[in-house]
Design brief:
437 residues; alpha/beta; VC0802-like; Rossmann fold; six-stranded mixed sheet; 24% helix; binds S-adenosylmethionine; S-adenosyl-L-methionine
Length: 437
């Protein structure tokens, strides 16, 4: 038997919200949710689930949701809400189930605050027919019953006079967002961060859409200051990062990626980070990488470079230079030569690596920048083993970035491919610095 639940979401990052909910449902093997009923314009989504356990698992990790409630009813106004609750065939059963539990009432609203407009005591009294016998407990009650009012905002700061809709439900699970994940991982409070650090909210959302799983290995090949490693660690993956820039990997003094993990009490999740050019990857080929999550260099704050000589003819023979009888390139302070590389080629390498190293159904998720030119088609990199599952866009003024999420379907998948074709029409870096003119 299934039961009705009400998901109360946040109206932000709408291009990512459904992908997060779907990915978390899939991660927990939840099949009863009818995503055809999902409405992008509404913060509410009524779903069917087997039980509270399923609801808890599904929503506890969510960042773009506030909470999930057992659904008791809804109406355009309070009389309609009361009628809807009492006419529901499950009403008597629900009431009995929790009648002796300690409880409290809470009020939530969307589209403005009801404070001042609603007489809360009178409102609570109007639910007397619930006949709860348990004690009212404001701290740690066994059950929280929630009234959620939806208003049409008059403007950005003011709610409408009367609610458009009122819901009633029993709180089953607050989301990670509601439980303070955004404050905890706020970049402002992070010991080690830099100009390339990725904000907390979307890095956690990315980890959810990438289905980073507890106890599995997550790899960020362009780790920088470790924002995605931090997000992966939060969801209890064992994380490994690498970056061509040793300064990023080492940090300074107490400001290191490791120190961030210590602050978040996630040290056990931190496997290690290493200085390495992704295109000359040294990770053991039998190391099982379950998920790849990253933010490759766009060439804006840092140019795209790989190991190698820009002008191989001029460099010829220099690899044999010796100092005091020792090959220079084997010395600890040797700085290898680097050559420029294109974003296209780097993303091709990333897709090839994911196809070769992820398990079947493992996910690769990465961010890709795009100039918002009407006349330039955005070509998404595709590999024949990888199914492109999501392409979630975050818009800025003249450019956007996309979270591209792929599932490794293996060599028999035979999907469309465009690796090796040089997809970019124009260099994103040049366009960025020219103000997209
Ligand atoms: C957009 S930043 C990623 C930032 C990271 N998400 C963070 O939290 O700081 C891209 C990173 O890729 C690194 N990078 C550039 N070329 C690379 C290469 N060939 N191999 C590995 N890392 C590279 C840069 O040093 C930079 O730190």
């Amino acid at each position: 038997m299934v039961k009705k639940y009400l998901v109360f979401m946040v109206q932000v990052h709408l291009n990512f919200r459904l992908a997060e909910l779907e990915s978390l449902a899939d991660l927990h093997g939840i099949k009863t949710v009818d995503f055809a009923q999902y409405d992008r314009d509404s913060p509410f989504f009524i779903v069917e689930l087997e039980n509270d356990e399923q609801a808890k698992k599904w929503i506890s990790r969510s960042i773009l949701t506030r909470a999930i409630y057992e659904y008791w009813g809804q109406g355009k106004d309070y009389p309609q809400l009361h009628a809807s609750m009492q006419n529901d065939s499950e009403f008597q059963h629900r009431k009995q189930e929790h009648c002796n539990a300690s409880f409290k009432f809470e009020f939530e609203s969307f589209g403005g605050s009801s404070s001042g407009k609603l007489d809360r005591v009178a409102c609570i009294e109007s639910f007397q027919y619930l006949d709860f016998k348990g004690p009212i407990r404001m701290k740690n009650p066994q059950q929280i019953f929630t009234v959620i009012e939806e208003y049409e905002p008059l403007n950005d700061n003011e709610a409408g006079e009367t609610p458009l809709r009122v819901f009633f439900g029993r709180e089953v699970q607050r989301s990670d967002r509601f439980c303070g994940a955004l404050e905890k991982y706020d970049l402002k409070k992070r010991p080690y961060k830099g100009t390339t650090s990725f904000e907390a909210e979307l890095s956690l959302v990315s980890a959810n859409i990438a289905q980073v799983k507890p106890g599995t290995i997550m790899y960020d090949p362009f780790a920088g200051t470790g924002s995605f490693l931090t997000a992966g660690g939060h969801y209890q993956a064992m994380v490994i990062g690498s970056d061509i820039d040793g300064r990023m990997i080492r940090g300074k003094g107490n400001q290191t990626i490791k120190a961030n993990f210590k602050k978040y009490k996630d040290s056990l999740q931190f496997l290690d980070v290493l200085t390495m050019d992704f295109t000359h990857n040294a990770l053991r080929s039998d190391l099982l990488i379950d998920t790849i999550l990253c933010d490759p260099p766009y060439g804006i704050r840092e140019s795209i470079k790989v190991l190698g000589a820009k002008d191989p003819e001029r460099f010829a023979g220099k690899e044999n230079v010796e100092i005091d009888g020792q090959k220079a390139y084997l010395m600890r302070d040797y700085i290898p030569t680097k050559k420029p590389y294109s974003l296209d080629a780097l993303l091709d390498d990333l897709l090839h690596f994911a196809a070769a190293r992820l398990p079947l159904n493992g996910r690769l998720a990465f961010w890709m920048p795009v100039a918002n030119d009407e006349d330039i088609e955005t070509i998404i990199p595709l590999h024949s083993n990888l199914e492109l599952k999501y392409n979630c866009v975050q818009e800025f003024n003249k450019w956007s970035r996309r979270l591209l999420v792929y599932i490794n379907r293996g060599p028999n998948f035979n999907g469309p491919a465009n690796v090796g074709l040089g997809r970019s029409k124009e260099k994103f870096r040049d366009r960025y610095f020219n103000g997209f003119n």
